[in-house]
Specification:
By secondary structure, the chain is α+β, with helices and mostly antiparallel strands. The protein is 36% helix and 19% strand.
Length: 359
């Protein structure tokens, strides 16, 4: 009988979102993700190479912080550090869902496309309701809203302008100077200091992206309409973005506003990957729902008081003795969004004691 502690945190939503994302797009979790985008493409997977920072939350909204704005200037370094300059274009580069000719296309790979993805959380489950190991199988994910880095940059500046009243041009100039300093001294920047300022955090709105994508501003809020108007005024490349819509699992959609030079990257290459992954993730989603009764087998215990008059430790622990090894293996697989026919891949987020049972 194994006994482990568990503590509810909103971060579990983020972990599940990352696992879902990685298994839909088959992208590699960046081990440098605390200072670089969350995900990078595998060698030979996409041309150009792709780097994506994932933002997840309810109501099509995520949070963007200013010390992430340097990513397009530094994400090339990830591919140099993780994979080296020479990419394997042979059979080893072919991932599930990729056609060999695409993986072996001998095209230039000297550019990295840097994007943000706002992933909407559709379930009504709260962090408080996710107070058991394996509770992430309750989570349901909706539409993706993928935009280039420049969109995130101008959205950040305009959201700050609407909050503080500072001139947009001054904010933009200040952010550009900040990015230059972060690029020049990435290990010695004032990240931690800036975290303390509420102006370093701005929302990134998927509803605005969807309104622009569909050219229907009624989709956004009144504040959103104002943001969109300012985006068109200051972000000169906005009108040139190409709208790409890819059907996702369970009737969700991947909405992309792509730079013109990246239209093929999403409309052809990513579409091929997603189309191959949809039936697999739909099967996993159904398995996750069917496995919910297994959570009832986890028994709550509390650490007793060791001495008279001492308060009982109210931090919950859980006993797994009522779960079979087969059931534990199944839950470990399902929290990682992995089908029974698949294997864990290098770059998958590992199972940790706070969300499952590492074995």
């Amino acid at each position: 009988m194994t006994k482990r502690g568990y503590k509810s945190k909103t971060g579990y939503f983020g972990t599940d979102a990352e696992r879902y994302f990685s298994r839909l797009f088959m992208m590699f979790q960046n081990p440098n993700g605390h200072r670089r985008p969350d995900f990078v493409s595998h060698p030979g997977q996409f041309n150009p190479r792709l780097s994506i920072e994932l933002k997840s939350g309810k109501e099509r909204k995520g949070i963007l912080v200013d010390y992430q704005l340097h990513y397009p200037k530094t994400c090339n370094q990830d591919f140099e550090e993780l994979f080296g300059e020479i990419f394997d274009r042979g059979d080893k580069a072919v991932l599930p869902g990729m056609k060999k000719p695409l993986a072996e296309a001998g095209l230039s790979r000297d550019r990295v496309a840097c994007y943000y993805d706002i992933l909407s959380r559709d379930c009504g489950t709260s962090a408080k309701q996710s107070n058991k190991p394996f509770s992430s199988i309750k989570f349901v994910w909706g539409d993706h809203h993928i935009v280039p880095h420049d969109y995130g940059f101008y959205s950040f500046a305009i959201s700050r302008h609407m909050r503080t009243g500072e001139p947009v041009e001054e904010i933009i100039d200040g952010l550009r100077e900040m990015i230059s300093q972060d690029v020049e001294a990435p290990k010695h920047g004032d990240y931690e200091v800036r975290k303390g300022s509420k102006q370093s955090w701005q929302s990134l709105y998927g509803r605005d992206v969807l309104a622009i994508f569909k050219n229907d501003f009624s989709i956004s809020t009144e504040k959103g309409k104002e943001r969109i108007e300012l985006m068109y005024k200051h972000y000169k490349g906005l009108r040139d973005l190409k709208a790409v819509e890819i059907p996702g699992p369970l009737e969700t959609r991947v909405y992309v506003l792509a730079n013109p030079q990246d239209e093929d990257l999403f409309n052809v290459q990513m579409r091929e990957i997603v189309e191959s992954r949809v039936p697999i993730l739909e099967k996993v989603a159904e398995e996750r729902q069917d496995a919910l009764p297994l959570l009832e087998k986890l028994k709550t215990v509390y650490n007793p008081a060791l001495f008279e008059g001492e308060a009982v430790d109210k931090r919950a622990n859980y006993l797994y003795g009522t779960l079979s090894r087969e059931e534990i293996n199944k839950l470990n697989r399902l929290i990682c969004w992995i089908d029974e026919s698949e294997d864990f891949l290098h770059g998958d987020l590992p199972v940790k004691p706070d969300d499952g049972i590492p074995i």
